[in-house]
Amino acid sequence: MAAVDPTPPAAAPAPPRYSLPPVRLPAEDILFCVDVDLEASAEMKSASAPSSGSASASSASPQPQPPAGAGAARPPVRRMDAVRQALLLFVHSKLTMWPDHRFAFASLGETVSMVKKDFSSDVGSAMEAIHSLSASESRYAMADLTQLFKIAYQEGKRAESQGRLLRVVLIYCRSSTKPHHQWPVKPKNFTLDIIYLHDKPTADNCPQKVYDALVDALEHVSQYEGYILETGQGLARVFFRQMCILLSHPLQRCIQDDLDIPKQVAKKTLAIEAAQNEDGTPVSSQQ
Hints:
single chain; alpha/beta; 6-stranded mixed beta sheet; two-stranded antiparallel ribbon; 8 strands; 16% strand
């Protein structure tokens, strides 16, 4: 009979531990540039229009009447109203994340004009600048971004010397006027994000060509991954959601093609139910 080796088998080596050392990201200097063309005064929708089925159902059943003495309908929400509200929410949220972020503001007519030149973390001065933004009563024949890039390049050098990072957020509202610039290829030292609010395509406008021009501008100047988000739905909540996406720090972003947030709750619920059915787990339902 063979002898039994009393030595226990050697334990398998523990897998190496992976650790990511904490790194402090540079604080941001964020320059908002808001389009003040007449199209910035276009009305936005408060909610999606009801479907035909919903309309027929509502006509078949009595609807609650507004309370006696109720005032007239609410005034329409315009793009500039939504922009001002979104900027206030953005500044509050960003400073909640880190109070060292700073902000400046500019407007875009035919070219760029500074509204608040000095970058600051002061909430009061940011609110004052935001509330001063208003749409023009006329359309501008052109939208020249050259001055915006010139300002951003100078501010980008200053921010870099202070260990900070400069980002420009452009909110553009024109459905037919393509922006242009005369900006030579220089070392890229700032990140550009764009939100494009436009009308639905018609025979009288060309939002696709405007969007393509905005993409070209972003790719020409952006140092890190810049996002371009657009909507022609006219829903304020879609615009607010896009502003929330731009809260992300440029050094913590995936490329936009891999961006899959925010997720739709309904789609997530359906995916969970499908996975449970595949596992044979019963899914409760109302009878």
